[in-house]
Specification:
Length: 306
Amino acid sequence: MKTFLSLLAMFLTAATPLHAEPPDTNDFLLPSIFASGMVLQRDREIPVWGWASPGEKITVTFAGKVTRAVAGPDGRWEVALAAMPSNRKGRILTVKAASGAKRELDNVVVGDVWLLAGQSNMGIPVSETDGGADAAAQADYPWLCAFGQWPFQGASPQRARDVVGGTWSVCSPFTAGSISAVGFYFARSLQPSVDVPIGLVGTAMGGTWIESWIDSETQAPMKEAEIYRQMCADPAFPSEGQFRLPGALYNGKVAPLAPMALRGVIWYQGEGNASPPLNTVYDTMLTTLIRRWREDFQQPELQETR
């Protein structure tokens, strides 16, 4: 069952982020989530998108199937690959423009994709956990691939088109130490029961409030509430770094990944909202976040368990 796992973060770290610059819509581009070594979600329609010159005809080929689209006036195009079963064999995903521009993504597999979000405890790598060095040394797991963004960067005042520094890597003794420990141990315990490739897509940033992970437009109606006015009156609320602005991390680290197909989301945050008045509305904010992310990723069946 698709699940939305909610955990409480236990401590936080401060960071100074940068914002993601949108790419030139006249260039032939793919978001960084679409790259060699990626995992596509099994058993559901898979959106693939990018940018090209307005009106450019685009052809996407994968697993013997061809899908076509035309770039809109803003240069954005999107196709939907038909749902397919899991497959460990790496195949080539080709995106080609009528002008001749082409991208070939090697070693693309099909399995389960999990989005990892939240604050510091979600971001803590395997190398910094008890027993992490031994766990990493044994982690020759070709079935596990992790997508990481540049740490402590990515906040944006507007919705960005791509994340900052996103790259995929296969889990090995050389790379496991840098993977989110929560994601790593979750995937390791899950693998025997699913026996499919697993992709972990990291977005976490330490020291953050849930308000940063929900778009400001969705939060706008809440600003009329007295509790929200109290929050905004707190000098720390908008001023302790751009990454704490309402919607900043949603804009730069989550929205650019939508509407990629997911198995589920692991949410590990709460310590940043542990003190009043933030804690008095956390349940409402978490419900709002879940609803909005379900809409963005076009997966209304994603469920929350605590």
